[in-house]
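Chain entry —
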Amino acid sequence: MKHRDAADFDVASVRQDFPALHQRIHGKPLVYLDSAASAQRPVAVLDAMDTYYRHDHANVHRGVHTLSQRATQAYEGAREKIRRYINARTTAEIIFTRGTTEAINLVAQSYARPRLQPGDEVLISLMEHHSNIVPWQMACEQTGATLRVAPIDQHGQLRMDAFKQLISDHTRLIAIGHISNALGTINPVAEIVAFAHEREIPVLIDGAQAMPHTRVDVSALGCDFYAFSGHKMFGPTGIGVLYGREALLDAMPPWQGGGEMILEVSFEKTTYAALPNKFEAGTPAIAEAVGLGATIDYLEKLGIEAIAGHEHDLLAYATQALSQIDGLEIVGQAESKASVVSFTLANAHPHDIGTIVDHEGVAIRTGHHCAMPVMNFFGVPATARASMALYNTRDDIDALVAALMKVRQVLS
């Protein structure tokens, strides 16, 4: 993707949109560098949800009264915003879920499980988040299929030669992360989809980390499924999206049963509703969907290309600054990366690093980042991870560097 010049991005103005950033932690101004775990929310999202709760709350789809119609319009309006933003063909292809994890589980249980047989294979990569590992393990255990894992290199990049060699006549589905949450690696998903489709193999993309950082066009990608979460992209928790090609979703059985996903029920037989309702059993997360719709509006106003340019500058600055610290080793230095820097510091456990820098007002993530196979590959129990977003600045990076110098001082 072509990056717009970072100078075009008014980060000072953007920061004013995020109330959570304007507080003190342990007496120090908050420096929030944990957006890969969960990003902060702008006022526009908070206001949209507040307006819904104060004025429009009612259950959707079921009522003829005004509040229900308002709620339904807001809920389905959010679906249309998402459809347009990711360039899906129809709102029937936009399924609301609780997040990326539920979206992947839905595909594993409703698409893969009925189709997999002993001898079949599902292909993933070593750098996947647990949410794109465990559902496939479960589906394979349930069906007798085999989970195959493509390797990565010491830079944290997918070894495409080995990946392609693992694709065989037995491969029934490929599930791959767009961007690694633990390493920041941007995978060549368009190339993977094209290669897979030449062999008539469907592809699911875990897009949780991609949506805040890059333009996602599911029609251009040609992927069969694309999953993402609201809270990673400055929206609410408890809401996410599964995009699926309509023909595939139409052929899949419902994953959960209950209200909303039915057309007609008798004790003898139930007829299921059409897409997307077939996969949205029960009362949905209405306010969260409204908030996610407001998130889409916010990102469109800023422009994802401008955001990407700003973050590209931040990543380069952070990589250079952290590399100057004695004993610090960056884990994952792929040629193509998003706004994540994972690192270790000599003679300092990542949990101690996280605790000390928190007392300096700096919020980073420490641990295995739900990517334990990645940690095992690099031979570390955990890393410290600084993840940047559209509201971060070079001053935030300088604050992190100063806090890490404090870590060295305390632990020396």
